[in-house]
Amino acid sequence: MKTCIACGMPMEDIADFAANDPSKDYCIYCSRPDGEMQSFEEKKESFTKFLVMTQGFDENVARKIAEGMMRKLPSWEKYFD
Amino acid sequence: MKVNTRKIQKLNTRKKIIETAYKVFSEKGFSVPSSIIAKEAGVSHGSIFAHFPTINDLLVSLLSDFGDKMGARLHVLAKKTDSVENLLKEHLKVLKEYETFYSRLISEINILPDEAKNTFAIIQSTVAFHFASVIECEIEKGTVKKLPIHMLFNTWLGLVHYYLLNKDFFSESNESVIERYSSELLSTYLNLIKNERRVYE
Ligand SMILES: [Zn+2]
Question: What Gene Ontology molecular function terms does this protein carry (chain B) (predicted)?
């Protein structure tokens, strides 16, 4: 099974893929409305917001967790050298 | 295609170390020295360091493996789920499967290094992701009270974690706390968050 290169989510159904396109390597949640992949900053902020909204974390702590998660993903490696 | 046996062997050793660490950590906690894991896995102490330079590296790899497995299971189960009740049932099923390790993890999380803590938060965020999408739907339909998502989620985790952390009070032997209390935990939680069914005239 493919996993999203930008957030690690498993992608099984067509609906999981960006723009419903299974040839894409990133998921629907990591794409912009036009189907392009979100930038590093956009992804970091959206994941931070998600952690605050769903788990109630402190925003600064959430941002560090978001960075920690992104550090391990192929799309974002280059931002952490 | 040429099969690289050395590479496969290396991967097997790595897998063996992680599986053994999972077992040893579950039973004895996370401060067990790596020499014990080596002994149990039947590999040399040096071999552990070759794969994982520090015990923290081992812990983080183990946790992300664990998170991937748990995440993948939940992801598949949550797909078929349309109600918070079914999602939480599935959550309990997954927790039951990993109960010993998971209980150890939540009881020692505060003394683990930051990277391990963050990995744990990411594991929970997979659960939170499915929880949020199902519960938002239910709130919209009016079947669940309009409370902040994080409070609904944390209340559920708080309840389940309390039973896991105080296992010794809730069960006498080695029986699974989740198994014994899952229906009571679930029905109580649902009663708390569900809206009274509206009566139409
Ligand atoms: Zn993604």
Answer: DNA binding
Asked if the Cβ–Cβ distance from A53 to B150 is below 8 Å, we say yes
Residues B74 and B171 in one domain: yes
* Same domain membership, residue B12 and residue B81: no
Which of chain A's residues have a Cβ under 8 Å away from the Cβ of B125? 50-51, 54-55
Listed by start position, the domains of chain A span 2-80
Domain membership of residue B29 as a residue range: 1-53
Contacts of B56 (CB under 8 A, 6+ apart): B113, B115, B116
Collect all residues of chain B within an 8 Å Cβ-Cβ radius of residue A12: 75-76, 79
For testing the chain B interface, which of A4, A13, A51, A55 should be mutated: the one with the most B CBs within 10 Å?
A55
Question: Same domain for B64 and B121?
Answer: yes
Helices (H), B29-176: 34-41, 45-51, 55-79, 84-97, 99-108, 114-141, 149-165, 167-170
Q: What is the pLDDT along chain B (201 residues), one digit of tens a residue?
A: 556 788 888 888 999 999 999 999 999 999 999 899 999 999 999 999 999 998 888 998 999 888 888 888 887 777 778 899 999 999 999 999 999 999 999 999 999 999 899 989 988 998 999 999 899 999 999 999 999 999 999 999 999 999 999 999 999 888 999 999 999 999 999 999 999 875 554
State the pTM of this model: 0.89
Last residue of a domain, one of B37, B53, B69: B53
